[in-house]
Amino acid sequence: MKNLILLIRPHQWIKNLIVFLPVFFGGALLQWEAVYAGLITVLSFSLTASSIYCLNDIVDVHDDRQHPVKCHRPMASGAVSITQGYILMGLMFILSMTSTFLLHARQVETASVIIFYWLLNIGYCLRLKRYAIIDVCVVAFGFVLRILAGGYATDIHLSKWIVLMTFLLMLFLSFAKRRDDVVKMNETGHAPRQNTIRYNLTFINQAITITASVTLVCYIMYTVSPETIANFHTDHLYLTSVFVLLGLLRYIQISVVDKKSGDPTKVMIHDRFMQLIVLAFGLAFLFIIYVLKNIQ
């Protein structure tokens, strides 16, 4: 049972909390129906992601057995058979689809997005991850699908700015993760992924800089846009840009100086400074849209 749990990687489910972005930026955190729909969608996406993790380990089982760290994964170590992996993959997806029936509205639209995400990532596991740049774009688009599902499930209109920021931020994190692979390749002479040879530090560093810069500009434009000001009835959201800048700089420091950007989930779980930045951003944003605008 322990190995089956390791195979579905529940510690990675934290990244599916991005489903709540429409609720957060839509000012609906105090609406129980929206929070409930968001939680169900997080559960559904988490189960679907676990299904993909199973397929990923099945496809990569031979390469993982040659890897100094991944060789300890349940599939690569032989603790879980390939047949068991396929069964668990199917079970996770069935449970995911079943959970969407717990939604009170727009079940079909939400389930359709999740199914598309599942099919896209099957293609990613089987083929797309072999191609540099395409691989990170698919990963980033997967997070756009998460917020799209969150928008459908909660019946909250998605701003074009949220879609753009999500894609750009996840592209930034994906490039930072690939940088860790390039560093390992340079140190060991072994490419952790098939497409790692199509990256180098010069390209990765420039890609990280570009995506971080565009993400920051996009967020600032979001906070000062007439649409946002009209929606939240305040023009003070631009003040939260400082936390976005600090977060990006901190992650670049972790990636370039500490060389520990291989797993964004672990960074968020273990890096106290990053946690404080995210917390401060959230509190500042909530204060401005829920408190400050009411006392003006």
Structural class: mainly alpha
Taken in chain order, the helices and strands follow as HHHHHHHHHHHHHH
Compute the CA-based radius of gyration: 20 Å
**Cα shape:** globular
Low-confidence stretches: none
Report the mean per-residue pLDDT as an integer.
Answer: 89
Helix percentage range: over 70%
The number of strands is 0
Largest sheet: none
Give the number of helices. Answer: 14
Strand content: under 5%
Distance between the termini: 56 Å
Describe this structure in words.
- 72% of the residues lie in helices and 0% in strands.
- It has 14 helices and no strands.
- It is found in: Membrane.
- It is a multi-pass membrane protein.
Notable characteristics:
mainly alpha; 14 helices; UbiA_prenyltransferase
Record the SSE blueprint:
Elements: H1 2-8, H2 21-25, H3 32-59, H4 61-64, H5 74-77, H6 82-99, H7 107-126, H8 134-154, H9 160-188, H10 201-224, H11 226-232, H12 241-256, H13 264-270, H14 272-295
Helix pairs in contact: 3-6, 3-7, 3-8, 7-8, 8-9, 9-10, 9-12, 10-12, 12-14
In short:
With 296 residues, this protein is mostly helical. The chain contains 14 helices and no strands.
